[in-house]
Records
---
Amino acid sequence: MNPENKKCDIIVLFDGYSVNSEQGSQSNCTCTLIKGNKNVIVDTMTAWDGPKLEKAIEENGLKCSDIDYVVCTHGHSDHIGCNYLFQNAIHIVGRCVSKKDVYYNFDFAAGKPYLIDVNIRVIPTPGHTLQDVSVLVSTDKGLYAITGDLFENKDDENLWYRLEVDDAELQRKYRSEMLRHADFIIPGHGPMFPAKYKYDQITI
């Protein structure tokens, strides 16, 4: 097998959640591992989650030093907190691509996908913030979209636009596009679900 065509395994290490509390809300993001020709972590939870994230990666046969890319779908603190664990990786935080003190030029604003390998690409999906990105992974089972807070969870039709968002119309547009093209959605604060679960619903 050509190593560039190595199949990807998608492993949701932790399902995200968000619930109201007396203090405000209690939330953490979904954290996903992609194992393949390139190993990728998408969204690294809060800064207090380092030990459990490191353990989960080791339980899946890798070390933090084996991660080639860290992708944070946007820059909110519950999505970037453990980036420090991955010293060997290229970091994509929203539309910012860097390694150590080197910041690379890449024109996400033009709608270009950032190709990690033949099966993994990062695309701009603004709305929740104007810097949001999603990760698309092609597999034998279909196209997986790791979307961060483009989708809060599978039942968020009456919720997502009531949250603090930078551009609700843009978010609505990219939600619709993702549901048309992806087979599975991994949302920012809930378990993975099949895209067709939501596709026929009126408000997307």
Note: The chain has one domain: 3-198.
---
Amino acid sequence: MRRKLRYSIAATAVFAAAVYLNNTDRLASHREGKPVLLAHRGIAQRFDERNLTNDTCTAARMLPPKHDYLENTIRSMRAGFDLGADIVEVDVHPTTDGEFAIFHDWTLDCRTNGHGVTREHSMAEMKALDIGYGYTADGGKTFPFRGTGIGQMPTLAELLQTFPDRRLLINVKSRDPSEGEKLAAVLNALPAERRELIMVYGGDEPIETIRRLAPDIKTASRASLKACLLGYIGYGWTGMVPQACKNTMMLVPVNIAPWLWGWPDRFLNRMEAGNSVVFALGPYRGGDFSTGIDTPEMLAKLPADYSGGIWTNEIEAIGKLRGN
């Protein structure tokens, strides 16, 4: 009995040592270089993020502005790249005349002087809107950007033409699979070398459609993120990468990252071997994957020599901290 117990203890110790050696970051090949910065919506006006719901008008909760950029505009994206962004994230909606509008909100009423569901308008109609109309930092007493956003809502075609060699992340703002079909058609019409610089994320249904019709595009959805994270936490210690973690964009909140086997370098190397890219986010607290690495304190939660991706809402601050 004692001999069997000793064998059992020895086998357990060997197994634990093997798991440790297979996953310790100390033995991983270190990834050199600076982190890759992703600017959420280019440069945007910040807002009070407390108690947000899907219907919250964030433009009406704007914090006192530090700059005059409006999100999802060509000017804001160009400034984001100039300040150190390697990738800019934009939001798209299909229009009634076959375009894709670059605009965040599901409806026009919050941010613009228009009304109704965004995707139920033509691009010509939305080009006439003032996208700075609804921004206020004092409860509606003043609207500092009114009149400055007329004609500033770009199309996806304009974005691709303006930044032909820049990396982009496109956010599909719906759960409509037909939107995935339309966007896949646009992406498949681009040269292969251009498609390599584009990633797409959004609702489960349109993203699944894009994965099927444009399989070379890296994608992410809530379903794929959950499947990848749970699968990797569950059996990533073996060195195996779940299928859900392949050819994807992986978003990793800083409070979940320490639970990932081999974080950071071994994990990043495994994801790269699966043709995937990783971006660190702010802490996940049961809401959307949208909080960013926006302050020096949050940046300090990442390893000092971290070289993976960083999602930020404050490219103007984080770009400087990275050394740009």
Note: The longest strand covers residues 87-94.
---
Amino acid sequence: MLKIFHFLLLLLLHLLQAQALTSPSDISALKAFHSSIKPRSIPSWSCLASWDFAADPCAAPQRTHFICGVSCSPDATRVTQITLDPVGYSGQLTPLISRLTQLTNLDLSDNYFFGPIPSSIYSLRKLQTLTLKSNSFSGSIPDSVTTLNSLESLDLSHNSLSGNLPKKLNSLSSLRRLDLSYNKLTGFLPKLPSNLLELALRGNSLSGYLSKSSFDGLTQLEVVELGANSFSGTLGAWFFLLPSLQQVDLANNSFASVEISKPAGGNSDLVAVNLGFNRIEGNVPANLRQKKTLRRLFLDGNYLIGKPPADFFAGDTEVSGSLGDNCLRGCPGNSQLCTPRQKSYAVCKQAYGGKLQF
């Protein structure tokens, strides 16, 4: 009888160990998250369809319930990740997501979430990755996002977010990758986080000058994508002195001139530059060609004059890209760099106030 008792006790202990004890606040947050999504947008074979709260979300093994979309801490008490499959879920992001205080990764990308990003997101202090790209979020980016000191990657691209960028964006001291491309953001570029590797803000309505103060201390910045905005003025010589810069896309803005010091930039890694379709006047910035690593250069669609430097077309070192659709003369017709053809003299003369002379 005693042996049977010990056996039953061991079996009970085993069952208790196998049974997860997910935090009640985490469970209520998951329930709120699930209920905020339109039932008709949840396919029967999807991750969210397996969320059955008759079972514990962190219980193992997860063979029939919570088979995907949720990850938990090693002790199975806290939810640490929500990563949804891109199947077209539609709904709003509930403010009660803030109860998941141990969340490190939130990825809702490629669905149909709409409405604002809740300001209560500031409670997710351990969040390292926030990916809400390719949804229909609207409204402004909440200032509370800038309190997420553990955040390393923020991707809110391809939504309908509007308003200015948060003023204290630079307080995201751990941020390495920022992508807010293809929204409806306006205003100036604030001071940026000092540890950024990649900056992508393409396809917005940002305006004003690119200020050196915005980029101060960004010694690790490798990729800058600010194309298809309304930036204007002069692109200062300091920009190409950013020491780790490799790829630059500033096309389709309204820059009027570019300053490049000798030698071109302080870095040795510049590979690609796109300054096409701005309003840049004057001579081709020849110092760019002094960068031996440069492989792609687009300056097309501007109002550059004069004759392009010969070393742009030097044998095996010729870069790809385009100097076409400018006001250049003597651009070698047999070079791919010189296509498409240059603007007409009349267009160029008008751009220079009638004072242009070939």
Note: Residues 86 and 110 are 5 Å apart (CA to CA).
